[in-house]
Amino acid sequence: LDAATIKNLELVKNLRDGGRKDSLLDIIDFTVTSMGCRLIRNWLLQPLLRCVDIENRLDAVSEFLSHTIERKELREGMKEIFDLERLKGKISLAVAHARDLVSLKKSLLPLPQIQNMIKPFSSTVIKKIHKFWDNAQDLVELVDRAILEEPAFLLTEGRIIKDGFNSELDELRKLSRSGKSFITSLEKKEREKTGISSLKIRFNKVFGYYIEVTKPNFSLVPADYIRKQTLVNSERYSTPELKEYEEKVLSAEER
């Protein structure tokens, strides 16, 4: 339809103030999803031209009108569906976040039930929809296994992927979470090995993890200790085991 016709017939906007209220769209739009609202708007602006298509659509409308209970159940089921078109766009552009994926899962969950609801319908349009229906339950299962129910908004915050979904990620998390117990255990082992009871393993952002030995114990430092820094009253060292652990922990936190 041309712009003048759309305006004068007040199909989607009224002539009074250009708002939607009291337009034809406002009067006939009883949709319960954002996608349905856009679809009926497009139908008004791009009406069918072939008689057979018009008759098929009217048959579908008539069938829904005559099945009051089924129609109400369908409307209730569709209220759980988010804007799938918008979600699809964000995913295809790689700008979706984890909460979008959870919304996608919740939107796809009712699809098998909705498919069963329309199965008895006999109109051409509804039968065609049922024939080519895809419940996408494999996608539901994937998101359910992978993403937490209430994930963080930003990827950098973590708290997105469920434990058990990826073995490599589980190992990285274990390293990141169990750092304190490992350091305590290693510190105890190095004290027993060297006989230095005051030996401490510490961390700072400049030097990373290091073993600190005070001046009176310099003579007890093993040959395999690698000096990192010399202070007035102490020296800081590393070992291959501590260095390997540090690399794993820092890599885990970054990833």
TrEMBL record:
InterPro entries in the record: DNA_mismatch_repair_MutS_core, DNA_mismatch_repair_MutS_sf, MutS
Pfam families, sorted: MutS_III
One GO term (biological process): mismatch repair
Transmembrane portions of the chain: none
Swiss-Prot/TrEMBL keywords: ATP-binding, DNA damage, DNA repair, DNA-binding, Nucleotide-binding
Family to which this protein belongs: Belongs to the DNA mismatch repair MutS family.
Name assigned to this protein: DNA mismatch repair protein MutS core domain-containing protein
Protein's organism: marine sediment metagenome
Phylogenetic classification of the source organism: unclassified sequences, metagenomes, ecological metagenomes
